[in-house]
Design goal:
single chain; alpha+beta; 2 domains; three-stranded antiparallel beta sheet
Length: 385
């Protein structure tokens, strides 16, 4: 997104992608109402919504056996009043195809960044591994958007703050049947959580476990894991046996962290590279896109003329840091008091906050706004085309 917006503004951009394509299982495929609003502002919404996707206007959870509406997106002040679920590879292919229409944009696949280059303390570019050998690319600005295991972040020596998270997630897929529930669901039960994401012909399943507990789960055996999944979602009983090998189950290590400084001279980190998010609320993608929009809005004009100053880069962090802090604080709260904090309740009871959402439908607009739009949504500063 950052590359697309900068190229659209006339800035020469090279996006480096280490893989040969975008086709792999990502953590989540949520396109939030604020991102859909951005696509409208860019004049891309109609074409974008022609891509295969599912639309969710209300988030529901099954909490200790009771179905509870959690978030109602239908009242949001946005063009699209729903969350779209779209495979992230389709989203990336769509963006890259449109970015390639700008002469100032280049996407280089199978180009893995392995190091930074410096002139004393100033970053001058990157070292890249390619199928045709190693090369060096020089740039007026390097943007690290390479995720929670960011090479850019490490090589730049940027200090990271860690916020303890007590969970990890097992990521797997189970086939979907025609008579299955149509909504994406979260199942909470006595401090445990199963999330099902509708991907058309299969469910992408996220099963929350205690941090570091995967080896213990393995020793208990696949049958025990299958039984636990069925205890949450009984309609999966006839096909949970598809999980017949541990190779079909991936461990996602949940992190919440944030860089103290997102930048140094001629280098900026955004998205998970600057602040790794928990999957709670599926807001990580949305927050990363908001970072990209703010980066383009604040830096494009200067980059058309040449390098930007460290003060210019700090403006991006100043604009995006407090929304990040607020969301991460909320995620920490959810982990401590909702996901892992129900064991003391009766098996059929609802936490007080969940009861309020059930009793007072208007309150469901609060989580809808927080999840669907977030604090300080960014808008494209150019004209709609």
């Amino acid at each position: 997104m950052a590359g697309y917006l900068l190229a659209r503004a006339g800035v020469p951009v090279i996006v480096l992608e280490k893989h040969a394509d975008f086709f792999r299982d990502f953590r989540g495929d949520t396109i939030h109402p604020s991102t859909l609003q951005l696509m409208y502002e860019l004049g891309l919404l109609d074409e974008f919504l022609n891509q295969p996707h599912q639309e969710v206007r209300e988030l529901r959870a099954v909490v200790n056996g009771q179905l509870v509406p959690i978030a109602d997106f239908t009242k949001l002040p946005t063009r699209c009043k729903f969350i779209a679920f779209m495979p992230q590879w389709d989203f990336l292919n769509f963006l890259s195809a449109h970015a390639k229409q700008f002469p100032s944009f280049q996407l280089l696949m199978q180009h893995e960044v392995v190091d930074l280059t410096f002139d004393q303390e100033r970053v001058t570019g990157v070292r890249v591994k390619t199928p045709r050998g190693d090369l060096e690319i020089r740039a007026d600005l390097v943007i690290g958007a390479d995720g929670r295991h960011s090479i850019i972040q490490k090589r730049a020596g940027l200090e990271r703050q860690e916020f303890g998270v007590a969970i990890d997630v097992l990521w797997m897929r189970i086939s979907k049947r025609e008579n299955d529930p149509q909504q994406t669901l979260g199942f909470f039960q006595q401090g445990k959580l199963l999330v099902l994401l509708d991907r058309g012909d299969y469910w992408q399943c996220g099963f929350v476990i205690p941090k570091g507990g995967f080896e213990l789960i393995k020793t208990r055996g696949l049958q025990q894991l299958q039984n636990e999944i069925v205890s949450f979602a009984g309609f999966l009983r006839d096909r949970v046996g598809e999980l017949d090998d541990w190779s079909k189950i991936k461990l996602l290590t949940v992190q919440i962290n944030r860089l103290r400084n997102w930048c140094r001279d001629r280098l900026l980190c955004i998205g998970d590279s600057a602040h790794a998010m928990s999957p709670a609320g599926g807001v990580g993608i949305n927050l990363a896109i908001q970072d990209a929009v703010a980066t383009a809005n604040l830096l494009a004009q200067q980059l058309r003329a040449g390098p930007v100053s460290i003060d210019d880069l700090r403006r991006v962090q100043e604009r995006r840091e407090w929304p990040t802090r607020l969301i991460q604080a909320m995620q920490v709260f959810v982990h401590r008091h909702v996901v892992t904090g129900q064991s003391s309740h009766r098996k059929d009871s609802l936490p007080f906050v969940v009861r309020l959402l059930k009793w007072f439908p208007a309150l469901r607009q609060i989580p809808a706004r927080f999840i669907g739009i977030g604090p300080r949504p960014e808008h494209y500063s150019g004209r709609v085309r």
